[in-house]
Structure formats: C-alpha cells, structure tokens
Design goal:
Blueprint (H helix, E strand, L loop, with lengths): L1 H21 L4 E2 L6 E2 L7 H9 L33 E7 L4 H9 L7 H19 L5 E4 L4 H7 L3 H12 L9 E3 L11 H8 L3 E3 L9 E9 L3 H12 L4 E9 L5 H8 L1
Parallel strand pairs: 3-8, 4-7, 7-8
Antiparallel strand pairs: 1-2, 5-6
Helix pairs in contact: 4-6
The chain binds zinc ion (2 copies).
Length: 263
C-alpha cells in the first residue's frame, strides 16, 4: 500500500532530477526578480546599474558626486571636520537599491539583508584597501526603542550581521544606545540635523572600544549626520578609527561645483 504512492513519487523525482541536469533551473535575482543565468543572487543588470551610479564619490563620506569635472574629490559637507574617518556605500540611493531598501525596511522583507550585505561586503574590501585598516568590530546604528518596537527589527543590525557573516564573523557589538526618538530628518538642513541629533547617542561599555577600529553600519547615508553623531561618541570612547559602511548613499553636491557657482 505504501509502495503504491511511493513509486510514482520516486518516478516524478527522478524525472525532475534528469530535467534539472539537462536544463538547469535559473535562479531569480533577489532585487528585480529577473532570471540570473549565471546563478548569482543579484543579476548582472542590477549589479551594472548599481556600479554605474557609484563611479565618482566623495572620498570622505562616500556619497556619489554628480559632476563631470575631474577636480572634485570631496562634497561640500566634507570640507569641514567630520568625526568618522571614511564612509562607503554599496551604491547610490536610486534604482534598484532605493526600491530594495524600501521593501527591506518598510515592507519588512528581512531576507533582503543577505544580498544587500553581500554587496556591502564587496565594498568593504575597497574601504579596507583605501583606509589600510581592518575592522576589529562592527557596530550597527541603533534605533530608538519605540521605533524598534514599531518596526520589529533594526535594519542596520540585520545588515551588520549579514556583513559579518560574509567576512568570517567579525564581532557585531550592539553597544550604541539612542536615547530619544529624533524627528524625521528628511526635510532638515545639515545644521538642523546636527542639532536634532546632539546628545542622542551614547556608548554602553566604552572600554571595549579603546584603540579599536570600528566599522559603523547603517542602511542609508543621507547627509551623514547620523553616522557623525555615532562616530563622535565612539571616538570619545577611544576608538582608533571609525569607518562607515552603508547599503546606499544619497548624492551630494561637490565642493568644486559649489565654489564655482558662488564665484
Ligand atoms: Zn536584478
Ligand atoms: Zn563627503
């Protein structure tokens, strides 16, 4: 009786196996859902679009500079002191990363942290080469407890864990605390953002950071003021370096373009 149902099942599995060998099933891109003939997690078209949008970036904060001039190396914000050492993102905050981050962060598709973490890990290789330093620990930018309760997960922590997995388990330390819910920053200028974030973060167990190279992880670098506020408390705790890695960065105005517009 048991064999009656078992044999046809075995037969169909065999046929499926033979068909898979003859015509390998194609994987689907985690970002656009298109086929990836080469079997990678993110298809070539998505990877090419991300690479094309992240060619020329501010050497300090890693935000894309939309300028044709060859002189630009810094954005306008990075001509002043910033507490972090160097920041980079997997790509520009535009298609396809913008849509993917929206699905990850607001629609709660946390499985997207794996492919995003993979792209960030490739960028980390560049960051390590450019900074000549290797991170001792990874620290995610924290959410305020009320925001965490509402969302159910901290997107920066998911990305930090994904990057750590890709890099052989660099320790992820959840030691930053966000003391007050900061108002939405989208409409605020840089100075207002800095004011909004003043005193918003602190470090638990600061002795852990003395002389350490810290990799701070966030989902999006908008103006960089959030990572600045986090880097400031980590540096005060004695961190030797604070570098930043994000899934995406919003384009910035180049310092050269602004100077020529003013002259
Ligand atoms: Zn794709
Ligand atoms: Zn910059």
């Amino acid at each position: 009786m048991v064999l009656k149902g078992f044999l046809p099942e075995l037969g169909s599995q065999l046929v499926r196996g033979i068909l898979d060998l003859a015509f390998p099933r194609q994987a689907l891109c985690a970002f656009c859902g298109g086929e990836t003939p080469e079997g990678s997690v993110v298809c070539r078209a998505c990877r090419d679009a991300i690479a094309a949008g992240y060619r020329k970036v501010c050497l300090r904060c890693g935000r894309p500079l939309r300028t044709a001039d060859t002189e630009s190396t810094l954005c306008i914000d990075c001509t002043a002191h910033r507490p972090f050492d160097m920041a980079r993102a997997a790509g520009c905050y535009e298609y396809p990363l913008k849509e993917v981050i929206y699905r990850f962060k607001f629609a709660g598709d946390v499985s997207l942290s794996a492919p995003l973490g993979m792209l960030m890990s490739w960028r980390l290789l560049e960051l390590i080469a450019a900074s000549c330093s290797y991170p001792d620990v990874i620290v995610p930018v924290p959410l305020h407890p009320s925001r965490l309760k509402h969302r159910g997960f901290n997107q920066a922590e998911c990305l930090a864990l994904a990057v750590s997995r890709e890099w052989g388990g660099i320790p992820v330390l959840k030691v930053l605390r966000r003391h007050r819910p900061t108002q939405a920053q989208k409409q605020l200028g840089r100075d207002e953002r800095l004011c909004n974030l003043a005193g918003a973060f602190s470090v638990v167990k600061p002795r852990l950071f003395w002389g350490r190279n810290v990799l701070l992880v966030d989902d999006v670098i908008t103006t960089g003021t959030t990572v600045e506020a986090c880097a400031e408390v980590l540096k005060k705790a004695g961190a030797a370096r604070v570098d930043v890695l994000a899934a995406a960065a919003v384009p910035a105005i180049s310092a050269v373009v602004l100077r020529s517009a003013l002259s």
